[in-house]
Amino acid sequence: DILRDPDEIDEGAEYICLTDRDDLKSNVWTFKKLNYPNIEKYNDWQKTLIARYTALDYINTDICLQIDASVHIKKPSLKLIHWLKAKTLTSVYLLHPWRDNYNDEYDEWINTRNLDPIQKDQFFKFAQDHGYDASIKGMIMTTIMIKTKCQFNINLDNYVLHELMNNNNFNQRVDQTYYSIIVSNNWRCDVSFLFLSMQILDSDYFEFYYHNSNVTHSNEYKCDLDKIDYKYFCGKLFPCLYL
Q1: Per-residue H/E/C for the chain
Q2: What is the dihedral of CA 223, 226, 231, 234, to 10 degrees?
Q3: Which end of the chain is more exposed for a tag (fewer CB within 10 A), N or C?
Q4: Longest distance between any two alpha carbons in the chain, whole Å
Q5: Which of 9-23, 45-59, 67-81, 92-106 is the most confident on average?
Q6: Is the pTM for the entire model greater than 0.90?
Q7: CB proximity list for 3: less than 8 A, separation 6 or greater
Q8: How far apart are CA 25 and CA 27, in angstroms?
């Protein structure tokens, strides 16, 4: 990934980049070195996952927008974060917009990323071991999440990282499916979640690049913070916001 400076800066927000590199430079991002036991023994992708699921340990604010370095922030995002915070949400997840079942998701990775097909079998076994029927449609998150810094989220991230390290997924680019299964089995009535469609990346707030090409679908969706829809996940009805 290429680290991109935001085009516009949110006053009062922290811009933190977690890394083990010493050569990065930025006028916006503050670099914090990954502080994880024996970090040097892990490969680059494993370090990415460690950073992703320990990010809340490095922030001082009470809410965190986690993005990959390939996401280019075009306009201030605090407007969105403040709107979500006003809803007293614990977590906000962006979903893949068109692939809502795990079979298609893995076929996509096998075809476009040359993923070893055995990973698909290993994932379905993982889901079965967690008591989840992955053959039904479910949520599949992107790696962009908004989380409050609370013990529930810290514990959940630690648990996800532990599961990834102890399964065959730790070297593969499919952790969001594992995360989706784990989160699906950890719903709590006192924790509030909101699902955003990935079309937020087509809104005024973000321009998203992946593998050096723009994969957004510009102008297909309009931003509307008041439009709430509902979708079923794991047999439960949850709000889903389309921007």
Answers
A1: CCCCCCCCCCCCCCCEEEECCCCCCCCCCEEEECCCCCHHHCCHHHHHHHHHCCHHHHCCCCEEEECCCCEEECCCCHHHHHHHHHCCCCEEEEECCCCCCHHHHHHHHHHHCCCCCHHHHHHHHHHHHCCCCCCCCCCCEEEEEEEECCHHHHHHHHHHHHHHHCCHHHHCCCHHHHHHHHHHCCCCCCCCEEEEEHHHHHCCCEEEEECCEECCCCCCCCCCCCCEEEEEECCEEEEEECC
A2: 100
A3: N
A4: 48
A5: 45-59
A6: no
A7: 17, 24, 26, 29, 69
A8: 7
Task: Please check whether residue 28 is in contact with residue 5, taking contact to mean a CB–CB distance below 8 angstroms.
Answer: yes
pLDDT single digits (tens) 109-149 = 888 778 889 989 999 998 898 888 888 766 777 777 888 89
Euclidean distance between CA atoms 146 and 64, whole angstroms: 6
- Asked if 205 and 75 touch (Cβ cutoff 8 Å), the reply is yes
Amino acid (1-letter code) at residue 163: E
